[in-house]
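Please, structure for the following, as tokens.
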Amino acid sequence: MDRFTAVERALRGAAPHALLEAVQGALATHYAAVSVDLLLADYAMTILQPVNVPTGADRSIPAHADGPGRAFGAQQPHVEKDERARQCTAHLPVSVRGDRLGVLTVKLAADRFTPDVERELSDIAEILGHEIIVAERDTDRFLQARRASRLTLAAEMQWQLLPGRSRTRPEYEIGAQLEPAYSTHGDNFDWSGDADQFTLTLTNGMGEGIEAALLTNLAINGLRNARRAGLSLVDQAFLADQAVYGHYHGAVHVAALLLRFDLATGDVEIVDAGSPKMWRMRQGRIEPIELEPQLPLGMFEETIYTAQRFQVQPGDRLLFASDGVYDVLSPAGERYGEKALARAITSTRLLPPSQVPGAVLKELTGHRGASEADDDAMVVCLDWHGRP
């Protein structure tokens, strides 16, 4: 058995809560690793936190600084050499199909660090990411390690709904973020892809706190139930609308934007049922995509929805935002608005989609100033590459 296979078997055979100890022991045995650390990104994607730190201790580092931050941001191994100690420290991104989880840091003697070893350690970090995703069904250890502070109950519910925060496929890349990360309540996003189609839904449940989270949960699960039954996008909207109306009888509603992309042609089917809006950057030009607005989900009984058509081209960037973004006011009462959002899209044009939402939301915080956010905010960025 070669060393890589031995480490892989150790990870696959480890108890869910003991993945870190398994990779530490296996890398020490088979690669002579001096030390092994696992850092996970927090919910706000601003810091990386070690998993094996006692509760209450703070050894977090910025998510886009130092060696681990560079590996996390670029999604490429970052190697630091200590000539005096004759050691190398490799910071390796831990991600699953483009969803960035954290960084695996491995220190070993410089004479043992070869290009083959670097490639194998990178693959081991990827395997570890997949094992963490599976392990989170059975242990809270890794979810707890991601928390810089306590989540509200509403935020706990919203984060459990998410499919991830980024995804990479040959046809597209997507990244998304919710803020305030530890107390979000009504905004949410969902996506699902198969061989031929990619479905994206953006929702904003009316209200605040736990009531908004419960409303959004009902809407998203209604949409998922219809989607998994193989129904059309229009029927997905119709059944989710009926689920919300049947429970709340029109007292509250859910704003939603539903999209289904044909991966082969770039044809997009859209149902616009509320406040999440879409902007497109094509060949450097940014413009809002004006759609025919329809009633939010759950406002009236048996609402009829119709789909609109839209075409994406290779190289297009789409940015989606909830009203908690474009309606934010500055201390002087100035609305953030479409012009400011267009500037933010331009200033982040060189960033990958996984980093764009965080950068836009950071700029939004600067616009709002020191005042508390009145509403939660959602930003989703999608780059369309198309199918050859």
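The chain has eleven helices and 17 strands. Residues 272 and 292 are 7 Å apart (CA to CA).
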